[in-house]
Design brief:
The protein has 212 residues and is of the alpha+beta class. The chain folds into two domains: 130 residues, Ubiquitin-like (UB roll); 82 residues, Alpha-Beta Plaits. The chain contains five helices and nine strands. The strands form three sheets. Strands 2-1-5-3-4 form a five-stranded mixed β-sheet, sandwiched between helices. A hairpin with a 2-residue loop joins strand 1 and strand 2. The structure holds iron/sulfur cluster (2 copies) and FE2/S2 (inorganic) cluster.
């Protein structure tokens, strides 16, 4: 076992364990969207989980750090806040913000993160460029709103883990999108309705349809 410090609190943790999950399991909130527990090679794509580690020149992503004995970690330094809050604003600049009608309202990771980092959901330093893609309601249980997707990749990962592989990333750069093979509507794709994607989606992009 290793002894590390997070915000000056001593924590006992397994040497080599993941820093993000160790912090979360010990009650220290680090904003994150793309992290998946026990994944060997985290995507580290959301750029929200910055922390400062003593001895490192610049903030690093907690989701790709392993615990080392004696590690000293700070979560909310000005350097962390600058990088993390900028990443959050950029992410929100592509997000269709309509919380009042969103199925995820009050259970949304974006709302939790905004509240934790004391940021507004609506970006004020960058221009908002929201996509206007059709919402896919073709599946009997699932509603997919690509305009709210934050490209965290969780749904793609669990869909592949479940053996279905129905969901994947399509296109590149600002056009990147989660979709089915050949962009087929979800209701016509080879989906086994396990609903694992809905369970892991941190925002209001993949949600259950209201039961009738
Ligand atoms: S996904 Fe979250 S932030 Fe976005 S509209 Fe829904 S509740 Fe609001
Ligand atoms: S649909 Fe949800 S889980 Fe999938 S990439 Fe988008 S935000 Fe993440
Ligand atoms: S959780 Fe670390 S970059 Fe997304």
């Amino acid at each position: 076992m290793s002894i590390i410090k997070i915000n000056r609190n001593e924590i006992t943790a397994r040497e080599g364990a993941n820093l993000l999950w160790t912090a979360l399991d010990n009650g220290f909130f680090i904003p994150n969207l793309c992290a998946i527990r026990n994944v060997k090679r985290p995507a580290a794509s959301c750029r929200l989980c910055y922390v400062e580690i003593e001895g490192e020149k610049a903030p690093v992503s907690a989701c790709v750090q392993s615990i080392r004995d004696g590690m000293t970690v700070q979560l909310d330094t000005p350097g962390v806040a600058r990088l993390r809050n900028t990443a959050f604003e950029l992410l929100m600049s592509h997000h269709r913000l309509e919380c009042h009608i969103c199925p995820k309202h009050k259970q949304c990771a974006l709302q939790d993160i905004a509240s934790h980092i004391k940021a507004k959901l609506k970006p004020h330093r960058v221009r908002k460029i929201v996509r206007d893609l059709p919402v896919d309601s073709s599946h009997p249980r699932i509603r997919y709103d690509p305009n709210k997707c934050v490209l965290c990749g969780r749904c793609v990962y669990v869909c592949q883990e479940q053996g279905s592989g129905t969901l994947d990333f399509s296109f590149r750069s600002i056009d990147t999108l989660v979709s089915t093979f050949a962009g087929m509507p979800l209701g016509e794709a080879d989906c086994n309705s396990c609903l694992a994607c809905v369970a892991v989606c941190p925002v209001g992009s993949l949600t259950l349809k209201p039961s009738v």
